[in-house]
Design goal:
Blueprint: H1 2-22, H2 29-53, H3 63-87, H4 92-112, H5 125-144, H6 149-174
Helix pairs in contact: 1-2, 1-3, 2-6, 3-4, 5-6
């Protein structure tokens, strides 16, 4: 598990480098902040799920977890390519699609790992509904405003923040 987390950290690092190259802070201040917030909270959701909520001492088949991690890595790479393509005017639709597909695969796989959670932090129907509602609202806003880069990334940054908030708030309720 630790190796998969390390590879994921490196892959997120590549995404950060792509953001720095695509949206330099000196030229695109707001976009830099919004994309960093989005990526930071995607990473926080990943760490919170895989490092805090998972039971690392259970004896279960780990192959599904490895496959989910491989898909998470692919999703992060799709997001990276999408960020770079979204900046190119003629590749806008492809970039938008790649970012949204990457985020969708990321969340599906991340929440696929919840079967390995500690007993006290198993997902409930209410939490799943909250995740789905936030995902649908923010993704719909991103699709509607995909021609406005700031609003597009703002919707995805808010989505990432709320996904982490739901996870942390849920954990707090369980304590």
């Amino acid at each position: 598990m630790e190796r998969m987390q390390l590879i994921t950290i490196l892959t997120v690092g590549e995404l950060v480098i792509a953001i720095i190259k695509t949206y330099p802070l000196s030229e695109h201040f707001l976009l830099s902040i919004l994309t960093f917030v989005m990526v930071g909270f995607l990473f926080a959701a990943y760490i919170y799920q895989t490092a805090i909520r998972m039971n690392h001492h259970q004896e279960v088949a780990v192959a599904p977890l490895v496959y989910l991690h491989i898909a998470i890595l692919i999703a992060i790479n799709i997001i990276t390519a999408g960020v770079e393509m979204y900046y190119e005017g003629q590749l806008l639709n492809i970039g938008v699609s790649m970012i949204l597909i990457g985020i969708t695969v990321f969340y599906l796989c991340l929440y696929g790992t919840t079967r390995y959670n500690k007993d006290e932090v198993q997902l409930t129907k209410g939490i799943i509904k909250a995740y789905i509602l936030v995902y649908l609202i923010c993704t719909t806003l991103a699709i509607i405003f995909n021609r406005n880069t700031e609003i597009f990334y703002l919707a995805l940054a808010i989505q990432a923040i709320l996904m982490v908030y739901i996870s942390v708030d849920y954990r707090r309720e369980e304590d």
